[in-house]
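Continuing the series of single-chain predictions for the mutant panel. This is the parent chain; the variants come on the following pages.
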Amino acid sequence: MKVLITGGMGVIGAMTTRRFVQEGHRPVVMARHMDRNLIAPVEDKIDVELGDVQDFPRLVSVIQAHNITHIVHTAALVGAVSNKNPPQSIHVNVVGALNVIEAARLMKVKRVVYTSAKGVYGYITGEYAHPTYKPVPEDHPKNPVRIYESGKLMGEHIGEFYHRTYGLEFISLRFAMTFGPGKMVRHGGMAVTSQIVELPFAGRPVRIEKGGEQKDEFIYTKDVGYAIYLATVAQKPRYTAYNIGPGFGQTLNDFARAVRRIIPDADIYVGPGLQFLEAPYHAIFDITRAREDFKWAPEYTLEGAIEDYIETLRQLSSQR
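Parent structure:
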C-alpha cells in the first residue's frame, strides 16, 4: 500500500501522517505550502509534494509518480474561513474533492478515505439532543446549515456516485468535535475545547459564558488519525459513511477538571446552561458501524488526551 495524504500537514492531516509513519508506512504528503509545525517528528520519514487539490494535472502526476494505491483526503478550507468566502470554499472543498476522486478513478487507485464533518447532520434536536442524547446514526437526515458542511456533504455524494458507478472504494468519516494542537489557530471560535487546554498552558484565563451542562462528544486529533488509518486498511467495509467518536458524551467542565490535574492553577470558568457553540450541533454518535467494520475504539481517554496535548504543546514551544 502506498498512501497519499492531501492536506497532510494540517491539524487532522498531520496526525494522520504521523499515524501512517507509526504503522511502518512512508506516506506521500501533498500540501499547498510547507508547514513543519506538526509533522516535524516524522519529516524524514515522509515524501512531500507541494500542490493544490484544485490543480487536477498536478494531482494525477503525484499519484502516477509515487504509484499511489490509497488516498486520504483531508485538505479543506475550514469552517470559519469557508463562511467568509463561500466561492473559495466551494472551489476547494467541492471541486477539490471531485478532482481527488476523479484522479483516483483515472489512475486506478483502490480506495479514497474522505474526511467529512459532523455538521452534515445540521442542527441536532428532539430525542437526539439534551437531555436524552439518543445516539445519532449515519442514516440520520442531513440538513447542513453552513457552506462548509454543505460542501462536505457534496463531497460525500460525489464519492458515493463514483463508488456506485465506477466501483471506486470510497469511505467518508464524520468526526465528533475534534480537539488537539493547531485547532485554535486554524478553527477560530469553534475550537472551544482547545481553548480550555491552550490558554491555561499559556498562563491565560478561560472565560466561556455558558454551556457547562451541555454534553457533547469529543475526539482527540491523534485518535482521528488512528481512525483514518483503520478506515484505510479495513478489509471489507460495508458502508460508504461512518461516524467516528468515543460513543459517549462529556462536558466542558470535564475538560476543565482534566486540565487542572496537570495545570493546578489553571483559571477556567464555564458558565451554566446549554449550547456552548453558536448553533445546536451538540450530539453523541452511534459508532456501531465503525466498531464492527474497523474494530474502532479510541486509544486516548479524555485525561490521557489532554496530558498528551499539553506535552505536545511543550515540545512545539521548545522548537520555536
